Amino acid sequence: MKIHEAEARQLLADAGLAVPDASTATTPAGARAAAERLFSGGAAQVVIKAQVLVGGRGKAGGVKLAATPQEAEQVAAGILALEIKGLPVRRVLIAPAATILREIYLAALIDRSSRGVLLMASAAGGMEIEEVAAKSPEAIVRVVAHPHAGLLPYQARQLGFGIGLSGELLKQFCVIAAGLVRIARSSDADLVEVNPLAVVPAPELPGGERLVCLDAKVTLDDSALDRHPELAAWRDADSEDPIDREAREQGIAYIRLDGSIGCMVNGAGLAMTTLDLVTQAGGSPANFLDIGGGARSEKVAAAMRIILADPGVKAILVNIFGGITRGDEVAKGLIAARDQQDRVVPMVVRIVGTNAKEAAELLTAGGFETAASLDEAAEKAVALAGAGGAAR
Length: 392
Ligand code: GDP
Ligand code: MN
Prior knowledge:
With 392 residues, the protein is an alpha+beta fold. It has helices spanning 5-14, 28-40, 69-80, 129-135, 153-162, 167-186, 229-232, 242-250, 268-280, 297-308, 327-340, 356-365, 374-385; strands spanning 2-3, 23-25, 46-50, 63-66, 83-84, 87-88, 92-96, 102-111, 116-122, 140-145, 189-201, 209-213, 217-220, 253-256, 261-265, 287-290, 315-322, 347-353, 369-370.
């Protein structure tokens, strides 16, 4: 689950990291009032930022500075009228504007291949990290923190030295880096990213500079949300992708891929096997979808809607192993779903296990293409997807 910058900043602040005070508003007048408070508190300028669950807001005109309350109101009105990468802006964040000397990138993410918390830092902050990775991969420094031990001091220093820090800034950097790892651990986040981690003037300090977190992006592990009701409450369902939302609400595990064969399977292992066999048969899967155990016909119909919402789907492969799930329920769901859908794509269905015979009768009567083995089903699906069967 993605959370908005405003809430992500709160996680950082709660962990004791340097984050400028901020508030949010949903109207231009609210933004003006927030700006007034900051100006009377001594701010020379304020920054107004769109709260949407995508990156690149700066480039899209969703991050702007204002020097007076009036200007803050106008700027907020402009930003609240924007749509960024298809997402309407419903809320803005208002904070005192920092004077940025340099921008650093720093992130902690769960890394399955190293089985740890991967920290990535780059002196080329501000830019999106994918861009840095493409243009100058050597500019990204990495260390892996042990999930239980956390980031050890020497590792934090190694990361900081790697991006050219020393002295007071290095000390601050180490505190922030260790903080991100702690946040990842304590909130079960799979990503905690600060970009930019800004170097700002600090005449009171030796070296005259300090670090502040000016942006925060946090994604939480959905499977761990039960342990964090206070974080789960931050979900902004209106800003979620509608398809992802329906899948979540129906209890369907759905991950979109970029192929052309939609797959509806019960069980995660069987779903992965199905993707492998589709690939082996020369096709390319459009999604991973696990309808779970004991799925009733309504859930099957929902899964069908979710698969068909992807315009790249040219054929559907249904692969059900009936244990708790009853084959005839799935068959009924498929028939009902086909009658409701406005886009018709060829389908091949394999149902084995509980009530397979009843399922086969229903499917044959309904004119569905069926298959006895998974290999056969995969081959048929690839053939049905036709020329569109290759990766799009
Ligand atoms: P993103 O584009 O969605 O990642 O949004 P960011 O919060 O990272 O803001 C984009 C850019 O706006 C940053 O890289 C900064 O250059 C600039 N920016 C953000 N906050 C401030 C600020 O307080 N002061 C100044 N001068 N620039 C800011
Ligand atoms: Mn950013």
